[in-house]
Specification:
By secondary structure, the chain is of the alpha+beta class. It is built from 4 helices and 4 strands, in the order βαββαβαα.
């Protein structure tokens, strides 16, 4: 799944990013790629509803895009994002 967010408050934005980092990886400044699972989605939705929703202003938003395995294979990545998908080999 993809989670995109924007908060007017820098503090709230930073807290939400830290929360999402527990479940996935940042692929853009305010966009995270999260491992798909019903439990993870439920955790994120619960957190949004209990902690963030009450503070929303007209400029705040969270968008959650659920993706399937087929959709994951159809993603096109460019620039640094493309390199993140390549395996890393370290020689010592």
């Amino acid at each position: 799944m993809i989670v995109s967010y924007d908060f007017h408050s820098d503090k709230r934005r930073a807290k939400f990013a830290k929360f999402l980092a527990k479940y996935g990886r940042r692929i853009q400044y305010s966009v995270f790629e999260i491992k798909n699972s019903p439990r993870v989605l439920n955790n994120i939705l619960t957190e949004v509803n209990s902690r963030y929703k009450k503070y929303f202003t007209n400029t705040d938003s969270i968008v959650i895009i659920k993706t399937c395995e087929t959709c994951q294979g159809k993603m096109e990545r460019f620039g640094y994002a493309k390199n993140e998908e390549k395996p890393v080999v370290i020689f010592s």
